[in-house]
Amino acid sequence: MELETAETDGHLRESSSRKKRKRKEGKTRMTTKEEKNPTVSIAVAGFIIDNAQSLELATLVARAATIFRIDEVVVFDNRASSDVDTVVRPGHDGNESESGAEFLTMILRYLETPQYLRRRLFPMHKSLKFVGLLPPLDAPHHLRKHEWCSFREGVTLDVNPPNSKGTLVDVGLNKNVVIEEVLEPGKRITVAMGDNRGAEIDGFKKAVDSSSPRDQIGMYWGYKVRYCSNLSSVIRNCPYKGGYDHIIGTSEHGLVVASSELVIPSFRHLLIVFGGLGGLEENIEEDNNLKGKNVHDVFNSYLNTCPLQGSRTIRTEEAIFISLQYFQEPIKRAEQLCNGK
């Protein structure tokens, strides 16, 4: 939804505390706003790195998601059941035992975050010890100080703006900017910087939904990361209104269809799922909510995206690159149907 609109005369008389509460509520509603464009999500079995928590593997997943403009990356664990999807958060002392899925979730979030925000958003943690050695994603929203864009990612600061109300935000420039909304510190937000490349950064800027760069100027703005305890939770807890329209499972046991002949129906929210070492069949069998179900009960399509493989096994990070390339044209055709072209 939109941020707070112009208030009536009666609203102008409401208390300052009520205004702040309304602004915070507006920001919360904004994060659940339905995107104008179709979205593509991938779900990855995070326990593929349980035995070797590899930063390089995590980087390959992040780079694949960025290269192919994925909107959401869901990392799922292999727990039989869980009422709540919880994951170790940055800011802990780093001594907690992490599953491979938790490790992958944290690294994916770190890599997607613009470099100038990482120190504020990711305190020291053992999983982040060597992340400085990783190659950058170089995503469009990872802006340098000298680069101009009508949007920037920022983090709200615990400092009152000089001579004004609102919230001070670090957007990676030599000078912080001020937004009119009153938000709690330490929150990552997307800021509309204006349309004039030569404009001063003084004056109020506007906090907008993170989908605005894509909706308004067609710019890819990174992926969201979600952790789930198991496969059924990936589908059940979809953050999009109405859930995923079409869910595709990938497996060497799937149907073989040439990419040029594959028809994906018009969709609003597409999900492509990659299993672990035992395949998605094993993930289904070990999930109490799915146990006994056939793959065709869980997925709308079940496909083999690399039928002529020369190796006995394809690693998950390899399968992601292969599959996302395979799906490029079918997704493009489906999006054109959605847009009426």
Automatic annotation (TrEMBL):
<dbReference type="InterPro" id="IPR029026">
    <property type="entry name" value="tRNA_m1G_MTases_N"/>
</dbReference>
<dbReference type="InterPro" id="IPR012340">
    <property type="entry name" value="NA-bd_OB-fold"/>
</dbReference>
<dbReference type="Pfam" id="PF02598">
    <property type="entry name" value="Methyltrn_RNA_3"/>
</dbReference>
<comment type="similarity">
    <text>Belongs to the class IV-like SAM-binding methyltransferase superfamily.</text>
</comment>
<feature type="region of interest" description="Disordered">
    <location>
        <begin position="1"/>
        <end position="36"/>
    </location>
</feature>
<dbReference type="InterPro" id="IPR003750">
    <property type="entry name" value="Put_MeTrfase-C9orf114-like"/>
</dbReference>
<protein>
    <recommendedName>
        <fullName>RNA methyltransferase</fullName>
    </recommendedName>
</protein>
<feature type="compositionally biased region" description="Basic and acidic residues">
    <location>
        <begin position="8"/>
        <end position="17"/>
    </location>
</feature>
<dbReference type="InterPro" id="IPR029028">
    <property type="entry name" value="Alpha/beta_knot_MTases"/>
</dbReference>
<feature type="compositionally biased region" description="Basic and acidic residues">
    <location>
        <begin position="27"/>
        <end position="36"/>
    </location>
</feature>
